[in-house]
Structure formats: structure tokens, C-alpha cells
């Protein structure tokens, strides 16, 4: 692990209709699962590293 990301479990984000929800830099992403969350993290890493997402 590179310790660049923090994942937290919270009780409520006020977006039940979108759930499960992941929030990245204030942007809500709905109907997420582990694979989609991994893809989001990879895309962020690629953008930070200047690679095409």
C-alpha cells in the first residue's frame, strides 16, 4: 500500500437512492462496488501521474 488514499465507513451520506456510495473529493459516485471503486482509484492515480484515463 502506498498510503495515498483513505477509506472510511460512515453511517449516512444522505444519498440512499444512489447507494452504495463513494465520495471522492466531494463528488458522489453511486451504485459502487469493490471493482468500480478500484477503477476510480486507478483513474485518480493515472491522472496524478499524467497518464491517460
The helical percent reads 25-40%
Distance between the termini: 21 Å
What is the helix/strand order? EEH
Task: Estimate the global geometry from the Cα principal axes.
Answer: elongated
Beta-strand segment tally: 2
As residue ranges, the low-confidence spans are none
List keywords for this structure.
53 residues, alpha+beta, 2 strands, elongated
What is this structure, in a nutshell?
By secondary structure, this protein is an alpha+beta fold. It has one helix spanning 34-48, and strands spanning 22-24, 27-29. The two termini are 21 Å apart.
Could you walk me through the main structural features you see in this protein, from its secondary elements to its overall organization?
The protein has one helix spanning 34-48; strands at 22-24, 27-29. A hairpin with a 2-residue loop joins strand 1 (22-24) and strand 2. By secondary structure, the protein is an alpha+beta fold.
Strand and helix layout:
Layout: E1 22-24, E2 27-29, H1 34-48
Antiparallel strand pairs: 1-2
Amino acid at each position: 500500500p502506498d498510503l495515498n488514499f483513505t477509506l472510511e465507513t460512515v453511517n449516512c451520506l444522505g444519498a440512499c437512492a444512489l447507494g452504495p456510495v463513494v465520495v471522492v473529493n466531494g463528488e458522489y459516485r453511486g451504485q459502487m462496488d469493490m471493482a468500480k471503486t478500484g477503477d476510480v482509484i486507478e483513474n485518480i492515480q493515472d491522472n496524478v501521474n499524467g497518464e491517460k484515463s
